[in-house]
């Protein structure tokens, strides 16, 4: 099970729960080492993220517009339970569309540069995506994903991303960075999981949703009400229900009956398969097919039909090229 | 600004805007310093002025005064007061 | 207690193919899965005396050595190292499976065993004193470690020093990997030593592995307290020279040769400072293995 957890990116999270709980004493000594090691690693990661955020903060000292933190970086900055044991590869920032050029150039002065992309991918990012190509720091190798919208602007499910962004507030104690409202953080996590098409961190993302829901519900009794109302306001009501259903299936999230979707759709069933263990020894049958179908579905939501075919062909072509990896 | 002194090793220098935390270890060929904010480790010669210089550079962004740094170095207990 | 050489060749291959094989290396238990026919054969020569299991069970790391796909299996004869499904390295020739296993295991421990401070160092013990041999690759550290191991010193590790929070050196006894001319040198000095197969044309040249001495394997769970930190440097034709190294300098040099010092943050600093505070550091320059070995023997004898 620990091997599956390692593969799913969940080992550190499990370590936090187990070692911080009453069953900590009954962990067999042979596994204690792995769990401790995972905790050490995630503590180091958290320090690195905080260091990186300080760096970004100085690089963007001249930017007056709000800089919104999203996903993992925001969980760390806000000290949410979802930050414990969570490892992620990029820092997600969002700024207004008009500010993108300026922020991009300030980041470049600070040492982050856009990686080498072929002309196709570059155009794809800038025209169709809700983010610009990832920027990597030349010395540290850390990556920033700079977004101008919470979801793809061309997404066929109409999501009122700008409303969520406009309601953002500065982070208490670290006013350089801004945060979404509680409900919006959860809604964004749900959209991120279900509208993104890639599920190798699916279980971890779903676990985020479970942790966020539990935490915010614990902080305010009216959270669930506000969540339902908000989801309708921004067009994510169906997505929210689907995400909460899945969280309930995997993590027994204490979701109100009103929010639980009784009959899972075909889409939700596919996601269930994709999110289950992806370890080569224990992955379930039909997962590869589910992955592919979900990818196609996601693309079809985002791209007009003529571009969809071109994009799929390009992706398959890229998949056949030799992959760069670390040399032994 | 606050200082916390641990006679053997750790010392913290905290500031609302600039996070600094150092750990010191006296060794036979100098003073090892760990800077928690950057993760860097340095070996400084056993020379009061050089340690002061090092701290000055690192606390440049905060409003730490020289006398505070001097006091802090004295409290480490390694250096004879002059 | 079942050892690898107690298991028949066929049973070993079966167990590896079905993912039921477990290997004990000191405090670590590995799941090793492989369907490469030659791998279990070579594995036996290098790990014959190690305790193992062939009917599944718990493990710390799940390792797989297999071709990444059909094409590579049948046409290119390439294999990859996989840990929990992740593949950190480019594929290598199937004939180098045993070498890939060793690199992969070094990477695994170096990348994940953060409950220890991990230094790039050979670790041996004699007369109750733990001795680290810390040096950059190519300075002859492994050759010296092999020489000491074959001269009665206990081998704890040839590559990775694992220092726990109690400041004990935890063994991870594995074959000593030797390169190019070192192989001939050690073989000529110790004709009775049996090496694993030679892997030629690897990205590091020719490599062969010397199985750890039986006594080191038998005592593979016994930790050692660090008494000496040695920085060895082989220089062709050089006379023996030994120089004491300051604690601070030793610390800075060890940081350069550490795998996870920065991951451990301030507790890494504390542990390292304790280490240099309690162990003597020496630098040794030599060209003769005999002289180096005698010098180290004397060092431990008189300073321990």
Structural write-up:
- The complex is a heterotrimer of chains A (328), B (82) and C (304).
- By secondary structure, chain A is of the alpha/beta class.
- Chain A has one domain (2-320): Beta Polymerase, domain 2 (2-Layer Sandwich), CATH 3.30.460.40.
- Chain A has helices at residues 2-8, 11-19, 29-59, 71-78, 100-109, 119-128, 161-166, 182-194, 202-219, 223-234, 237-251, 266-275, 287-302, 305-320, and strands at residues 67-70, 90-94, 112-114, 135-137, 143-147, 169-170, 177-179.
- Chain A has a seven-stranded mixed sheet, covered by helices on one side.
- In chain A, helix 8 packs antiparallel against helix 9 (202-219), helix 9 (202-219) packs across helix 11 and helix 13 packs across helix 14.
- The longest helix of chain A has 31 residues, at 29-59.
- With 82 residues, chain B is an alpha+beta fold.
- Chain B has one domain (2-47, 54-65).
- Chain B is 27% helix and 35% strand.
- Chain B is built from two helices and five strands; from the N terminus they run βββββαα.
- Chain B has a five-stranded antiparallel sheet with strand order 1-2-3-4-5, covered by helices on one side.
- In chain B, a hairpin with a 4-residue loop joins strand 1 (2-5) and strand 2 (10-14).
- In chain B, helix 1 (48-58) packs across helix 2.
- In chain B, 23% of the residues are buried.
- With 304 residues, chain C is an alpha+beta fold.
- Chain C has two domains: 4-112, no CATH class; 117-303, no CATH class.
- Helix content of chain C is 36%, strand content 29%.
- Chain C has helices spanning 9-17, 38-47, 70-76, 97-112, 141-149, 180-189, 214-218, 247-256, 261-278, 289-303; strands spanning 22-25, 28-34, 52-53, 61-66, 78-83, 92-93, 117-126, 129-134, 154-157, 160-163, 169-170, 176-179, 199-202, 205-210, 226-234, 241-245, 280-286.
- In chain C, strands 7, 8, 9, 10, 11, 15, 16 and 17 form an eight-stranded mixed sheet that branches. A six-stranded mixed sheet of chain C has the order 3-1-2-4-5-6. In chain C, strands 12-14-13 form a three-stranded antiparallel sheet.
- The longest helix of chain C is centred in the C-terminal third of the chain and has 18 residues, at 261-278.
- The mean pLDDT of chain C is 91.
- The chains are: A alpha/beta (328), B alpha+beta (82), C alpha+beta (304).
- Chains in contact: A-B, A-C, B-C.
- The interface between A and C is medium-sized, with 26 and 37 residues.
């Amino acid at each position: 099970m620990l091997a599956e957890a390692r593969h799913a990116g969940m080992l550190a999270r499990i370590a936090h729960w187990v070692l911080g709980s009453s069953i900590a004493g009954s962990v067999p000594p042979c596994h204690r080492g792995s769990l401790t090691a995972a905790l050490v690693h995630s503590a180091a990661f958290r320090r690195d993220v905080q260091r990186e955020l300080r760096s970004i903060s100085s690089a963007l000292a001249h930017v007056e517009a709000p800089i919104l933190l999203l996903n993992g970086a925001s969980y760390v900055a806000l000290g949410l339970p979802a930050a414990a044991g969570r490892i992620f590869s990029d820092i997600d920032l969002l700024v207004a569309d008009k500010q993108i050029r300026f922020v991009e150039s300030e980041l470049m002065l600070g040492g982050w540069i856009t990686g080498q992309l072929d002309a196709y991918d570059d155009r794809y990012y800038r025209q169709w995506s809700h983010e610009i190509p990832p920027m990597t720091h030349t010395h540290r190798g850390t990556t920033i994903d700079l977004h101008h919208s919470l979801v793809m602007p061309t997404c066929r499910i109409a999501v009122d991303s700008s409303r969520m962004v406009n309601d953002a507030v500065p982070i208490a104690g670290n006013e350089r960075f801004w945060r979404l409202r509680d409900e919006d953080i959860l809604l964004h996590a749900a959209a991120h999981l279900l509208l993104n098409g890639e599920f190798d961190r699916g279980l971890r993302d779903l676990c985020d949703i479970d942790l966020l829901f539990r935490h915010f519900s614990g902080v305010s009794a009216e959270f669930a009400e506000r969540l339902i109302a908000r989801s309708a306001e921004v067009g994510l009501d169906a997505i929210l229900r689907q995400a909460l259903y899945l969280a309930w299936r995997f993590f027994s999230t204490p979701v109100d009956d009103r929010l639980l979707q009784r009959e899972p759709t075909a889409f939700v069933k596919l996601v269930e398969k994709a999110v289950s263990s992806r370890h080569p020894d224990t992955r379930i049958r039909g997962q590869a097919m589910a992955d592919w179908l979900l990818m196609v579905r996601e693309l079809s939501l985002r791209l007009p039909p003529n571009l969809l075919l071109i994009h799929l062909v390009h992706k398959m072509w890229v998949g056949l090229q030799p992959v760069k990896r670390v040399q032994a | 600004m606050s200082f916390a002194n641990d006679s053997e090793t750790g010392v913290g220098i905290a500031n609302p805007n600039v996070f600094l935390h150092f750990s010191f270890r006296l060794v036979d060929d100098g003073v090892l310093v760990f800077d928690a904010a950057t993760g860097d480790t340095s070996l400084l010669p056993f020379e009061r002025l050089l340690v002061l210089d090092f701290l000055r550079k690192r606390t440049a962004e905060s409003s730490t005064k020289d006398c505070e740094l001097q006091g802090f170095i004295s409290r480490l207990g390694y250096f004879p007061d002059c | 207690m079942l050892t690898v050489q107690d298991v028949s060749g066929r049973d070993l291959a079966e167990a590896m193919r079905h993912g039921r094989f477990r290997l004990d290396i000191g405090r670590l238990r590995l799941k090793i899965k492989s369907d490469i026919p030659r791998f279990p054969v070579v594995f036996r020569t290098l790990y014959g005396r190690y305790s193992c299991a062939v009917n599944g069970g718990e493990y710390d790391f799940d390792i797989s050595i297999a071709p990444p796909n059909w094409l590579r299996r049948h046409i290119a004869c390439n294999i990859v190292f996989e840990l929990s499904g992740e593949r950190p390295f480019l594929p290598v020739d199937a004939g180098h499976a045993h070498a890939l296993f060793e690199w992969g295991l070094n990477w695994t421990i170096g990348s994940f065993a953060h409950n220890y401070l991990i230094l790039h160092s050979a670790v041996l013990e004699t007369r109750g004193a733990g001795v680290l041999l810390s040096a950059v690759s190519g300075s002859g550290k492994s050759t010296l470690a092999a020489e000491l191991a074959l001269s009665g010193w206990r081998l704890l590790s040839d590559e990775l020093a694992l220092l726990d929070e109690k400041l004990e050196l935890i063994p991870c006894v594995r074959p000593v990997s030797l390169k190019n001319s070192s192989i001939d040198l050690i073989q000529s000095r110790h004709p009775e030593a049996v090496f694993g197969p030679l892997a030629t044309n690897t990205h590091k040249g020719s490599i062969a592995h010397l199985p750890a001495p039986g006594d080191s394997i038998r005592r593979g769970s016994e930790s050692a307290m660090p008494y000496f930190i040695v920085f060895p440097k082989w220089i062709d034709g050089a006379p023996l020279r030994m120089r004491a190294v300051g604690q601070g300098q030793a610390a800075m040099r060890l940081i350069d040769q550490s795998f996870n010092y920065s991951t451990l943050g301030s507790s890494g600093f504390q542990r390292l400072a304790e280490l240099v505070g309690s162990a003597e550091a020496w630098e040794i320059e030599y060209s003769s293995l005999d002289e180096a070995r005698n010098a180290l023997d004397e060092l431990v004898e008189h300073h321990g």
